[in-house]
Structure to design on (150 residues):
């Protein structure tokens, strides 16, 4: 009886779908990434977090980050250049949307969304990135979180 219960439990555990953030090849974005890091470093920002992430077209990828009250942050999202739509939404700990940015394919600044943010309280924030692509299901995205120190 114990063995049957253990087998059933292990089957149930393996059947659950778990979304895990996975890295992807960010080499196509490397020139943009290096250029943005250099630009923000010249303005007194340091990189707190950066990551490439595997994304699926039309599905949000959540990122949770701690932020300190009064500090100035810059968030950058770089999406696949062939995507038609790019969105970033940021929510505070109370789940209030505090930032919304949307770009369409063909906009002047293309596949990059960047915005400055200074939180009203020291708390965790959730950032949700999204991109939509008609031809590709699996996409690569890249995020940078920078903080002003000078």
């Amino acid at each position: 009886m114990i063995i049957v219960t253990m087998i059933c439990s292990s089957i149930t555990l393996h059947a659950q779908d778990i979304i895990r953030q996975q890295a992807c090849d960010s080499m196509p974005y490397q020139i943009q990434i290096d250029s943005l890091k250099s630009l923000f470093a010249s303005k007194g920002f340091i990189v707190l977090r950066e990551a490439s992430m595997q994304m699926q077209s039309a599905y949000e990828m959540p990122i949770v980050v701690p932020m300190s009250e009064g500090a100035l942050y810059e968030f950058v999202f770089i999406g696949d250049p062939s995507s038609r739509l790019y969105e970033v939404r940021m929510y505070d700990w109370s789940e209030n949307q505090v930032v919304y940015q949307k770009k369409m394919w063909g906009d002047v600044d293309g596949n990059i969304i960047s915005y400055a943010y200074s939180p009203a309280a020291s708390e965790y924030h959730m950032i949700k990135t999204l991109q939509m692509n008609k031809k590709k299901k699996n996409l690569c995205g890249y995020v940078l979180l920078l903080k002003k120190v000078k």
